[in-house]
Amino acid sequence: MQPPYEECIGCIATKWCKRYSGEAPKPEKPDWCNPRFRLMKALSLTNIPKRYINANKYNYKADEFNKPIAKELKPYLENILREVNDGRQFFFFGERPGTGKSFHAFMLLNQYVYKACLTNQMDFEHPLVYFIGYADLMNELRYNRDSEDLSKVIEIVKNVPFLLLDDVGAGTTSEFTDEQTFLVLNHRYNNNLSTAFTSNFTPKELQTKLNPRIVSRMLSDSVLIKFIGEDKRGWRKPNA
């Protein structure tokens, strides 16, 4: 099949693009793909790691453990614009690493980018979604709090429409991390901004690591999903 644009080669959207499949006609002008331009610009602002840039429902591999999770998340994925605009939160937890918590959270973030980048919510300067690891954020706040670059990151973390705060509870917790976490999450809570959390701790266990006021805000209007199963990252024996 001849792709409609040169930019189609290597584009992550070909699995669902109606222009690529021929379901939608290619406009006569311009001769370049504006939706792809908007998508790639939106993704470039997200801080999503390269490993997860293709985490979406089109690349999803179901197994005995995540099939029920996929079923539960389906309506949220299908209505992601409405869910984020309504301030929906997601809390994915499970004591074992590698069970898919982060992948499923990135599915939500990416789906929102795919949809929102084609609306007037996309302004080409501010991210639609943003990813940051909890321990990394706390470490930066502890040692680089006066950094101008960090101030910009904190502004994004507090105000981005959809935030993924990954591995909550990881690292050293203290009164300082409690205070900084509360400042961020209380701002997002008060402004009805969507946040996805992943953690190796249950909500009850997190209350022993973080101030209960923080956990209460994390769980407010939140979709709670427990992840079980084996570590999908696995361990590969090197070739002899």
UniProtKB/TrEMBL annotation:
Keywords: ATP-binding, Nucleotide-binding. The lineage of its organism: Bacteria, Bacillati, Bacillota, Bacilli, Bacillales. It comes from the Bacteria. Pfam families: IstB_IS21 (PF01695). This is ATP-binding protein. GO terms for molecular function: ATP binding. GO terms for biological process: DNA replication. Coiled coil: none annotated. Residues 97-212 form the IstB-like ATP-binding domain. It comes from Peribacillus castrilensis.
